[in-house]
Fold:
Amino acid sequence: MTHRFHMNTRDGARRLIFRTIGAGATVLLLGVASGCTLGGAAAGGVIGNEATNHSTLGTVGGAVAGGVIGHELGK
Structure:
């Protein structure tokens, strides 16, 4: 049985790249605009979640990295 909305590996990789780039741009803009640790952590968590296909470890790791980046940009 064939699914109507079958996505091949190339489309999945392309979608992941665009999501990661979009989320990265969001982190940079949020970090620069707010310059705070909380904003960076929230944006990093979103990026980590999307980049690792919704894994908990990726979300937490992204939040930690985003918090550090937000803290450093806020100095």
